[in-house]
Write a structure and sequence with these properties.
Length: about 375
């Protein structure tokens, strides 16, 4: 339904937060311990700005407050940019009130038509988005916490400005380590609403399932951009299928042969080396390949240990004939008919029954202990 007029900003914010939770829940990422809101941290944000103004790192101008970038000698140390190559992305807005075009907004005076504003020593208005993060992070974690994360698109100006504000106000660094993940790219281009090439996460999850999406995400290194295509997602689906097929053949809850341990060690070494998930994934499939090539019964312990680290602890073996007898007795009946057709050497009929099973979504595996059904690869 089309909406006429502008939606209240609080309603829009609540809706976006709900979408974020729904998507991350579907990916089974778990919930953060805290989910702070800028609108509920306003006192701390205003105090923070006041400290910056009092120390000369910021100045008020016509109800706005700006950070004096050249007052921070460490500015640029995060994004490694030269001062003169920097553009705060604030456009012409407030340009005439800035002492220096490099300066960025800490507080913006309320404008006509804005539905949300707060009182401050500089008049009614709202905070800039960089100062919100410095204040919220400090309130929950203190100064000098271990890791600050975010997308690579936030290095500049957002994180550079967060770091500068905290250095200027508190005299020490906000975080010891800043980690940035690469963006998902569609055929070499950035996904963007304006380009019309967006694939919403919930649609991708519906099409390919959570496990395939997680498998796809770990196929690249987190720091690098990741190409998005249907073919990549389908490849990830096949990878999940191969693991489930391996689990079907392995002995559940048994130790794995020590000869296979080197692959599991390579897996954990790769993850210990800056989360090198592509290398870890390769080691996992090397383990599976070697396990599949052995004649003896191989226990699944190593594989289960690796899968748990990647968030695949609940991955189930491909369905066994016993499972199917409960869930799809007709399929078991068709399989028995095919066995009988083969016994009387009626191969056209046996082939017809194989095709009928495939149409129902099953493949036949003929093995030394008879034939069994496994779900067909999509
Ligand atoms: Zn932030």
């Amino acid at each position: 339904m089309a909406r006429v007029g502008r939606r209240p900003s609080a309603e829009l914010a609540a809706q976006m937060a709900a979408c974020y939770r729904a998507d991350t829940d579907a990916l089974e990422l778990g919930r953060p311990d805290h989910e702070p809101l800028a609108s509920q941290t306003m006192e701390a944000i205003i105090d923070y700005i006041a400290v910056l103004v009092a120390s000369g790192h910021a100045y008020a101008a016509d109800g706005d407050v700006y950070f004096r970038v050249r007052s921070d000698p460490g500015y640029g140390s995060l994004s490694h940019r030269r001062l003169d190559d920097m553009d705060q992305g604030e456009g012409v807005e407030g340009a005439e009130r800035k002492e220096d075009p490099l300066d960025f907004a800490l507080w913006k005076a309320r404008k006509e038509g804005e539905d949300t504003s707060w009182d401050s020593p500089w008049g009614r208005g709202r905070p800039g988005w960089h100062i919100e993060c410095s204040a919220m992070a400090e309130q929950l974690l203190g100064i000098g916490f271990d890791i600050h994360g975010g997308g690579s698109d936030l290095v500049f100006p957002h994180h550079e400005n967060e770091a500068a504000q905290t250095r200027a106000a508190r005299g020490s660094e906000l975080a010891r380590l800043w980690m940035h993940n690469g963006m998902i790219q569609l055929t070499g281009e950035k996904m963007a609403k304006s380009l019309g090439n967006i694939a919403p996460l919930h649609e991708v999850l519906e099409r390919h399932g959570r496990d395939a999406v997680v498998m796809y995400l770990i196929s690249g290194h987190y720091r690098q951009p990741l190409a998005f295509s249907e073919a990549e997602l389908q490849a990830a689906e096949r990878s999940v299928y191969r693991i489930r097929d391996a689990l079907r053949r392995l002995r559940a809850d048994r130790p794995s042969p020590p000869e296979l341990r080197r692959h599991a060690e390579a897996f954990f070494d790769a993850l210990a080396n800056d989360f090198n998930t592509p290398a870890a994934r390769e080691a996992l499939f090397n383990w599976i390949r070697e396990a599949n090539s052995r004649d003896d019964d191989v226990g699944d312990a190593d594989l289960r240990e690796m899968l748990a680290v990647l968030g695949f602890e609940r991955l189930a073996p491909l369905g066994s004939a016993q499972d199917l007898a409960v869930s799809d007795p007709e399929a078991i009946d068709l399989l028995a008919q095919r066995e009988q057709a083969r016994e009387r050497r009626d191969f056209p009929e046996a082939d017809r029954l194989r095709a009928a099973l495939l149409a129902r979504g099953y493949e036949i595996r003929d093995g030394p202990h008879g034939s069994e059904l496994i779900p067909a690869e999509r």
